[in-house]
UniProtKB/TrEMBL annotation:
Gene Ontology molecular-function annotations: DNA binding
Protein name listed in UniProt: DNA-binding transcriptional regulator YlbG
Record's keyword annotation contains DNA-binding: yes
Native source species: Candidatus Nitrotoga arctica
Keywords on record: DNA-binding
Amino acid sequence: MLHTSNPIINHKAGWLNLASELQNVSKACKIMGVSRNTFYRYQELVETEGSEGLIHRERRVPNL
């Protein structure tokens, strides 16, 4: 179970916690209104980088 005080990742961490509490990824995704693919992407980020991996990072370089 993830515990965080960062409001940016609080929603995503809550979603991962909901899936672990329900023991059903599909049901948690349906409740939260997101795809299972996104869930597994977030779960992989948490496993590799910890809870800080859930912070949104811009992928593109700004076009000045």
